[in-house]
Design goal:
387 residues, 11-stranded antiparallel beta sheet
Length: 387
């Protein structure tokens, strides 16, 4: 049997061990949590690895990048002007055709018959007119001798005038019949590429039908339609008036080649829903590099900012107070600067205030930095800005 005086210390020691085993982990967790909430204190004692670049002076082109859609220079829906049986299709779908090439032939026989009928009617009425003229001349001579009355002579002149009008109508009918006969052969109104054939040979085509037989797209030259933000409206108008606005597109078939166009359309109003204005540019497209329906990036160079301070765009960060950047001072410490950006593209940003030429800016590692932190430069960006 254990003595009562010895049992109490034994249980007290066990309780103390249990309390310590619970308190020590909790104390460690509390310290770790505080450190995670203040990473600056945790890294205050050691340098932060960063990448840097040097602010320089350069000439920077101000370019706008947008997406343009390729459109045919002209698109013609070919329809028949006469009603008849489609006798022949003289092209293949998607074929390149020239202006004046025969596309379709409609059965000519009914129209040739109408021409012959109109010519016969004209000949009959011309003969009647010649007879009426001779009769009117005889009546005119007989009036002076009193053999016929003036009324009869007038009626003879009226017959002549009536037949003259009839002959003119017959001549017009012949012209119309010959036009219909000519329209039995349908030719390409423009040069370009044919689309899908909508009616096959042997079908009856009607002049009153809304359906086209085929559509031809002119692709040399070609148009590219795009929009630009309205805040650049004044500069766009000025450059259009001086013919200096030259949209550029990367050749989709040869990425190393740049295609240059000329603005041919400038819309007369700004789209109030998007705040943009639509333009169209003509591209020669002599090799059909561009095809209707394509969406391609369009680059518009508005002007060139000369001798301005530039930094890599990735050095500029956005915060609640605006744009800022980290500068590395002579003590190899990070200094936070508010910067004023006047223009940016994917490569460089033009700085109006906040960074001077020759200063070193952080391009990578900003998330681990705070003002006054020691830094360790692990990489320096030596790339030149795009001109």
């Amino acid at each position: 049997m254990t003595h009562p005086s010895l049992a109490k210390p034994f249980w007290s020691i066990q309780i103390l061990i249990i309390v310590l085993s619970i308190w020590l982990p909790l104390s460690g967790c509390s310290t770790t949590e505080k450190e995670s909430q203040d990473p600056g204190k945790k890294t205050a004692g050691r340098a932060v690895a960063v990448s840097t670049a040097t602010a320089t002076k350069a000439d920077v082109p101000v370019e706008l990048t947008t997406v343009g859609s390729v459109e045919p220079y002209a698109a013609v829906a070919v329809k028949t002007q006469v009603t008849g049986i489609l006798q022949n299709v003289a092209f293949r779908e998607g074929q390149q055709v020239k202006k004046g090439d025969i596309l379709f032939t409609i059965d000519k026989r009914p129209f040739a018959a109408r021409v012959a009928q109109a010519e016969a009617t004209l000949a009959k009425n011309q003969a009647a007119l010649a007879n009426a003229r001779r009769q009117a001349q005889r009546y005119q001579s007989a009036v002076a001798s009193g053999y016929v009355s003036s009324e009869q002579a007038d009626q003879a002149q009226t017959s002549v005038a009536t037949l003259q009008a009839t002959v003119l109508a017959d001549e017009a009918a012949i012209t119309n019949a010959r036009i219909d006969l000519d329209n039995c052969i349908i030719r390409a109104p423009i040069s370009g590429y044919t689309g899908a054939l909508m009616v096959d040979e042997g079908n009856l085509v009607k002049a009153s039908s809304e359906q086209s037989l085929v559509t031809i797209n002119q692709l040399t030259p070609v148009k590219v339609s795009f929009t630009l933000p309205e805040q650049h409206l004044a500069e766009i108008r000025r450059r259009i008036e001086t013919q200096e606005l030259t949209p550029q597109i990367t050749n989709p078939q040869q990425p190393e080649q740049i295609l240059t166009g000329k603005v041919s359309f400038f819309d007369n109003s700004v789209d109030p829903q998007t705040g943009t204005i639509r333009l169209k540019a003509d591209f020669p497209n002599s090799r059909q590099e561009l095809w209707p329906g394509q969406f391609l990036p369009v680059i518009i160079r508005l002007t060139i900012m000369e001798n301005v301070t530039i930094v890599p765009t990735r050095a500029v960060q956005s915060g609640l107070s605006g744009y800022y950047a980290f500068i590395i001072n002579k003590d190899q410490k990070a200094e936070l600067r508010q910067v004023e950006i006047v223009f940016s593209n994917q490569d460089v940003s033009v700085v109006a205030a906040g960074v001077q030429e020759g200063e070193v800016v952080v391009t990578d590692g900003q998330l681990r930095l705070r003002a006054g932190a020691m830094v360790k430069i692990v990489e320096t960006d030596q790339k030149e800005s795009r001109q």
